[in-house]
Write a structure and sequence with these properties.
Elements (H helix, E strand, L loop, with lengths): L11 E5 L3 H15 L4 E5 L2 H13 L4 E7 L7 H11 L4 E6 L4 H11 L3 E4 L5 H4 L1 H15 L6 E5 L4 H12 L4 E5 L4 H10 L8 E4 L4 E3 L3 H8 L9 E7 L3 H12 L4 E4 L26 H14 L3 E3 L4 E7 L2 E6 L4 E9 L3 E3 L15 E3 L3 H4 L6 E5 L3 H11 L4 E5 L11 H9 L3 E4 L3 E6 L6 E6 L2 E6 L2 E4 L3 E3 L46 E3 L11 H21 L1
Parallel strand pairs: 1-2, 1-3, 3-4, 4-5, 6-7, 10-11, 10-15, 11-12, 15-26, 17-24, 18-19, 18-24, 19-20
Antiparallel strand pairs: 6-8, 8-9, 13-14, 14-15, 16-25, 21-22, 22-23
Helix pairs in contact: 2-3, 10-11, 10-15, 13-14
Bound molecules: flavin-adenine dinucleotide (FAD).
Length: 556
């Protein structure tokens, strides 16, 4: 076992294997590539590794990754990685396996939620070891940076303004610390020093010493240096919406030489960014969080030179001759040869007495991961029977005491993927109630009681939080009359344009596959009529759209 070096504070990587030559070889290879930023420690057994981790913990040091061999006497790699989660919950955990053990490793990975597996031998390491470890460390860093906050947010837990500020910071990956006025004595002390009254919350204390009182997301973005203004006067491609479809178009557009700008009204990632774990996206056998997907896509688009403007809402679309122009909420305009509509969908609101008044005060739409932390030990309710509700239930079950999933229909089978149904069945503190809906929500300034209507009549339930996932409607109010939509507001494209009753296609050529009734304006992802509503299809359409935009530009 190598002892932790108390004088150096670099985060540690820990490799564990009972075969000394293998152990030395992994340590050597990892040091060669990551030695400058990380200390590479080793242990010859699970027991030694556990001791070493506890020692690191006692010293308050960081552990970024544990890489453990599966076949070890005494304690298997999976057992050790499960134990590692208790000591360093944020450390990435990967299994080292022989080819013959791959199936067993994948099963164990699903069970123990391990981040990845690597196969022995890993030669050449440039291809078979470093890329995976780099990815894992990138994800760890994105999470770990939260321990060094950029901002401190002080507010009331059940205040929509505080919720909005925290959600904005979390989704834009700005490390922040949350101080709840009711629970944290430090919060009142800071407010007194800054002379901020309780009706001006949330207050955001920035690293440079300045304080913002009840800031809007746009103010926060400006002060934190997030890009909100376009750099060019004219673009080849203006993308509206920064979910998977928009981000994919930004990556392909910019990488293929188009001057590309993406406008997003909240934070990159879209609905996918709210997902605690996307398990069915190709190439990520153990799933990845929506936040990680959004971060990777955002960085990739930036690397190719796309401009990404956040906290800017698009409110209008017009055609001026060959130019396509979008208007932002503040009145500014962005002009380009082409526009991609990738504005996705938003959750439908739950229509029951009392619900609207409690939105942001215990009633949340989407997985609102920032609120999940506050649910420790409590009863929380998830409304909905589709995959998004299932994922949220699984995620919340790790924090909450009890999760009640309310489903209108008589089973989950029709609406949820089988893998999620199986996961939910295996989690003890999740209870699924079918044929049950919310009849009313009550609470004085914050949710405290729900009235449920079930097959046996009405029932009262004490609950401080309810997360609602009941279907979605498209964000298309802004697209104007020249872009044809179906009766529900989804945008028509390609072959569907011919059937668009009020919109005559103006050109001799047929519209391209993802082109709308307005030539040069394309659509991709969930917002499209008859779209599939999956991350992979949104990504596929976003990337395909760039191909059609090239053809449009060539013809124009
Ligand atoms: C909790 C949850 C879990 C999910 N899990 C999975 C899963 O495991 N696997 C899977 O395949 N799919 C999953 N989905 C579905 C998947 O996330 C969506 O199909 C996908 O995100 C659609 O991508 P999109 O880019 O078309 O739209 P969206 O993701 O909806 O993104 C649209 C973006 O446009 C922005 N926008 C909207 N209007 C404007 C405007 N006027 N101006 C500027 N910006 C605007 C929005 O803020 C948003 O960021 C999940 C969805 C949710 C909510």
């Amino acid at each position: 076992m190598t002892a932790p070096d108390a004088t150096v504070r670099r985060p540690a990587l820990l490799v564990v294997d009972d075969e000394p030559p293998v152990l030395r070889a992994v340590q050597r290879d990892l040091r060669g590539r990551f030695g400058e930023e990380y200390r590479v420690l080793r242990a010859g057994s699970g027991a030694e590794a556990e001791e070493l981790m506890r020692e690191l913990r006692r010293r308050g040091e960081a552990l970024a990754l544990v890489l453990a061999d599966q076949r070890m006497p005494g304690m298997s790699g999976v057992e050790l990685l499960e134990a590692a989660r208790g000591v360093f919950p944020k450390a990435k955990r990967a299994l080292l396996t022989a080819y013959a053990d791959t199936d067993a490793a994948i099963a164990a990975i699903n069970r123990a939620q391990i981040d990845y597996y690597l196969q022995k031998p890993w030669d050449p390491p440039e291809e078979r070891l470093y890329p995976t470890v780099e990815d894992l460390l990138g994800d760890w860093q994105a999470d770990a940076v939260l321990s060094d906050p950029e901002a401190r947010v002080i507010g009331h837990r059940f205040s929509p303004g505080s919720h909005e500020a925290r959600d904005f910071l979390a989704r834009n990956r700005v490390p922040y610390e949350w101080l709840e006025l009711e629970r944290d004595p430090e919060a009142q002390r800071l407010l007194d020093i800054a002379g901020i009254a309780a009706d001006r919350l949330p207050a955001v204390f920035l690293r440079d010493g300045s304080v913002l009182e009840a800031p809007t997301p746009l103010e926060l973005a400006g002060r934190l240096g997030l890009p909100t203004q376009a750099e060019l006067d004219f673009y080849d491609l203006v993308i509206v919406g920064g979910g998977p479809a928009g981000l994919a178009a930004a990556v392909y557009g910019a990488s293929e030489g188009l001057r590309t700008v993406l406008v997003e009204r909240e934070a990159p990632g879209g609905q996918a960014g709210q997902s605690s774990r996307i398990e069915n996206y190709l190439g990520f056998p153990n799933g990845l969080s929506g936040a990680d997907l959004a971060r990777r896509a955002h960085d990739q688009a930036r690397r190719f030179g796309a401009e990404l403007l956040t906290v800017q809402e698009v409110t209008g679309l017009a055609a001026r001759g060959p130019q396509r122009v979008v208007t932002l909420a503040g009145g500014e305009e962005l002009a380009g040869h082409s526009v991609l509509i990738a504005t996705g969908v938003a959750y439908r609101r739950l229509d029951a007495p009392g619900v609207e008044a409690l939105e942001g005060r215990g009633v949340y739409y989407g997985a609102s991961l920032v609120e999940a932390e506050a649910c420790k030990g409590q009863t929380v309710v998830v409304v909905g029977g589709a995959n998004s509700a299932g994922q949220a239930a699984v995620y919340l079950s790790r924090k909450a005491g009890r999760v009640l999933v309310l489903v209108r229909g008589d089973s989950l089978e029709k609406s949820m993927s089988q893998y999620l149904i199986a996961q939910i069945a295996a989690i003890e503190n999740i209870e699924v109630r079918t044929q049950t809906s919310v009849a009313a929500a009550e609470g004085d300034g914050q949710l405290d009681t729900l009235r449920l209507a079930g097959p046996d009549g009405e029932e009262e339930l004490a609950a401080a939080s309810m997360f609602v996932f009941i279907g979605a409607a498209p964000y298309t109010d802004w697209v104007g009359d020249r872009v044809g939509r179906d009766a529900r507001g989804f945008v028509l494209a390609g072959p569907d344009v011919a059937g668009a009753a009020d919109h005559r296609w103006p050109l001799e050529r047929d519209p391209f596959l993802l082109e709308t009734t307005l030539p040069g304006v394309f659509v991709a992802g969930d917002v499209r009529h008859r779209s599939i509503k999956r991350v992979a299809s949104a990504v596929g359409e976003g990337s395909m759209s760039v191909q059609f935009i090239h053809q449009y530009l060539a013809d124009a």
